[in-house]
Amino acid sequence: GKAPVRVAITGASGQIGYQLLFRIASGDMLGKDQPIILQCLELPGAMNSLKGVAMELDDCAFPLLKGIVQSDKPEEAFAGADYALLVGARPRSKGMERGDLLKANAEIFSVQGKALDKSANRDTLRVLVVGNPANTNALIAARNAPNIDPKRFSAMTRLDHNRGLAQLADKTGSAVTDIEKFCIWGNHSATQYPDINFGTVKGKSLVNTINDQKWVKDNFIPTVQQRGAAIIAARGLSSAASAASAAIDHMRDWTYGTNGQWTSMAIYSEGEYGADKGLYFSFPVIVDNKGKYEIVKGLKLDQFSQERFDATRKELLSEMDGVKELLP
Ligand code: NDP
Asked: Alphabetically, which GO biological process terms does the record hold (predicted)?
């Protein structure tokens, strides 16, 4: 059989981590024939809770699970890692300014970038940042890992993408798999731009099928942008299972390809579509069956789209400016 791959997860005993670990160990991320070693990182104060999670993982007797590392030291948790899912982050506490939140997370992600640079498997590594502000955290981690290709880092907009697909399938009375060429541009935040202009449903234009621009502007876009808050309002807790599911989709598609379909990933920008070079920006991408992603090229943005694109781009620039001292 295949040799095991090493999957590092930070914030492993948090809400999202608790959903993620079991699905990775059961083979949902890398397939039912890929053995896995889970390498869990937690804060010292959460090690006991992590121990309980590891006991439960043992108790699942997952055939693919070949080992569990529990550590509060980034270099140890990232040792030889082929995959790193950076979930743990500092949540916004009451009265905390946005700038303070950015800085608190910048500290965490600069340490983790350095640790990845030292100890991960640089030739195979795929990094997905889930912890918020995800795009800027990815930027900081990548910039602190000078020996790792910045294209090996990404941030998650797949949950936003999946939320959009679900809304569009519902509106058009179709299956999520009937919707193609939909994408999220920009930041994983309220400024993200879910774009249906190139989209199709069963091969026909989404814009023409829906034929209701007012619904798109006043209903669809805000629903996708504010879905996280709506789930907190309903459940009293943030969206953890769906976030974990999106992380699994992201890593699986990045590894095995998208079969020619579009998906959304926040990745290193070379300046495509005017997104400033060096930002981690969500683009429509296609991943080939060797695990190489390409940004979809040659799309024409209309004025409405361009305005939204610029708003999310400017937000990312201002986040970058807020952490500039921590960028080597
Ligand atoms: P969650 O597991 O619920 O969330 C973790 C991070 O994911 C947060 O930054 C959260 O952002 C973000 N996130 C991104 N997308 C979503 C989404 N759709 N829904 C919800 N969250 C999303 O947080 P917990 O507090 O339960 O767990 C965090 C764990 O991380 C704790 O166990 C803590 O000990 C650990 N931690 C570990 C660190 C480390 O390993 N060095 C550093 C810091 C924390 P948002 O806050 O905006 O919801």
From this structure: malate metabolic process; tricarboxylic acid cycle
